[in-house]
Amino acid sequence: MPLSPELLELTLRATLEALLIAVAFWIMLFTLGAARHLARLGAVRVVVFSAFMVFWIAVHLADRGQYFYPQPASFYPAARFAMYEAGEPRETIPSYRLEGRFADGSAREIDLASFFPSVDLASLDSRMLSVSSGLRSGDPRARSLAERELEGYVSGIRSILAARNEPPLVEVSFHATRHLISDRTLVLDTVPWSESAWRPGNE
Amino acid sequence: MSEVRLHLQASAGTLAVARIVVCLVWLSRLLRDPIHQLGYLPAELWHAYGAMRLLPDSFVAVLIDPVSLSVLRAVAIGLAVLVILGTRPQRLTLAAFFAVLIVYLGVSRGFGGHVNHRELVLLYVTGLLFFLPIFDACALHEGQLRDAAVYRSSMIAICLLIAVSYLFVGLARATMGFPVVFDPEVMRGWLVGRSLRPNPLGIEFGAAFLDGPASNYLIPLMLPVSTLMEILAPAALWLRRRYRIALLIGLGSMHLGIALLMNIVFIENILLLALFVDYTPWMERLSQRRRSSSPPPYAVNTPNSAIIPRMIAAATRSGPANSPRSIGASYFRCMKNPTTSRNFAADRVSRSGTSSGRSASM
Q1: Which pLDDT band holds residue B302 (cuts at 50, 70, 90)?
Q2: Which of B330, B272, B254, B271 lies closest to B128, judged by CA?
Q3: For residues B149 and A158, is the Cβ–Cβ distance under 8 A?
């Protein structure tokens, strides 16, 4: 199978990454003597420590699909340790916004991360951007999946509001947005999904 | 720079403090984490990553529930406290704590879009602790003392693990993204993307920074400097103290900047950097001050004044070294001689009249 130029470049970069990791470990362990210290832990501990490091490095090099949801293969609790590793300059950036109207008449942006702080904001963002992409895609199956995801998150928010005795959500809408990077101007604001099914008593 | 300069005076107490620090970092995470709120989400939203696929569906159905998640959190908190105290069975408790944490973090990650590595290095350090002699001091049931080199090597292994996590991040960016990723407009785009989200801290630093004039000068420096510090992080083991502190401050500032400007809080990683500080001399000074300034912990002229010293003497004279009778004395000894395992060894010799070959060989 012929390699595309992009795939060839990625392969070369990944190979370089692996080589540099190997060189860094060689320098740390042998040139600078860390292996001598680790050896004092005893054979069993050295073997366990080395086995974990080798496994972690292997996962780090292999876990390239980490930021694509749903991730087909995951090695959790081992994972690739990388963030903001690739990108290119562009004029606009896609984003999303969840807005709600509440039973007390107020309307405001719903901060998903404040309802579910256990899920890291970055991780929630990647899930919502995936939902946004599904809602705007022409594929009915992808759209249906994205709608079900949003309905699930909104039902969770409703339950939390009910548990806190806070005014319930009357209406909620998901905005897929796009902003200019230069001054953060909103250049696109579509509402691919909204829900106003709540009525008093049907919780 | 050919010799590891970190934790030169490490002792059983140094490693024990590392155990306590790691568990306190976990407690700081667990105590303020409302994970039970994830139980209000439909279980079908949860994605099983990696090892979480081994859990039976029926277990997951029970687990994704506000009450079950509250119980899971309470168990994790309880186990963290037990590991801090060092009660028996120590290794079993630590193994259970590690397993519970894998499930705990797997639950929260399952509702996200990717497996972020925020607490994973802390998890790995916790797993590493299982293999290290972390209960030889500052524990209710202390283990046999060993050669001081073992404790120092243990601290080096822990710090190496933490440092390598930075190295991975830095090398990944340098190799996969160079040179395009270091274009200031790429960083600006990421900052803009993050500043559009409501800030959990309620402080819109990101937006204010982007609107200010300093952003034009600082944004081009952010990613290159951060990447350089990440790649250099392992050097903290070999650098002289002042340079190591400078590197730690740099890494801490990087985490703080990410929290303020991008709303991504890596508080656990900031706290873990404390393990790169040679705190053993501080422990020594603290214990010396306590010995010289504190009055006896009992009233000298009361009829029962000899009870406490008699109890300690009884616990330290007879019976196996870790008998329940020595429980009260353990923390006393930890504060008395926290610095050198040589002192611990001498203490144990005086207690039991015997010494292991390893401690005697020092």
Answers
A1: very low
A2: B272
A3: no
10 Å Cβ neighbour count for B112?
23
Q: Give the integer Cα–Cα distance in Å for B163 and B124.
A: 12
Collect contacts of B185-189 with beta carbons under 8 A, ≥24 apart: B185/A89, B185/A90, B185/A181, B186/A87, B186/A88, B186/A89, B186/B223, B187/B219, B187/B220, B187/B222, B187/B223, B188/A181, B188/B215, B188/B219, B189/A87, B189/A89, B189/A90, B189/A93, B189/A181
65-124 in chain B: CB under 8 A from chain A:
66, 102, 105-109, 111-118, 120-121, 123-124
Q: Which residue of A has its CA nearest to B118?
A: A120
The answer, for B45 touching chain A at a CB cutoff of 8 Å, is yes
Instruction: Name the percent of chain B lying above pLDDT 90.
Output: 64
| B235-266 tens-digit pLDDT | 999 999 999 999 999 999 999 999 888 888 88
Q: Which residues are A174's β-sheet partners?
A: A98, A193
pLDDT at B222 over 90: yes
pLDDT tier, B225 (very low <50, low <70, confident <90, very high otherwise): very high
Q: Is the pLDDT confidence value at B357 over 60?
A: no
B353: left (phi over 0), alpha (psi -120 to 50) or beta: left
pLDDT digits (tens, 9 = 90+) for B55-88: 999 999 999 999 999 999 999 999 999 999 999 8
Please state the rounded mean pLDDT for residues B111-124.
Answer: 91
- Sketch the domain layout of chain A as residue ranges: 1-87, 92-195
Give dist(CA B118, CA A109) in Å, integer: 26
Q: Provide the ipTM.
A: 0.92
- Give yes or no for a contact between A195 and A171, defined as CB atoms under 8 angstroms apart: yes
Q: Do A41 and B263 touch (CB under 8 A)?
A: no
Cβ contact A179–B196 (<8 Å): yes
C-alpha A169/C-alpha B22 separation (Å) is 40
Of the residues B6, B40, B54, the best mutation for testing chain A's interface (the one with the most A CB atoms within 10 Å of its CB) is B40
DSSP B37: G
- Give, in order, the Cα–Cα distances in Å from B217 to each of B188, B194, B210: 12, 19, 11
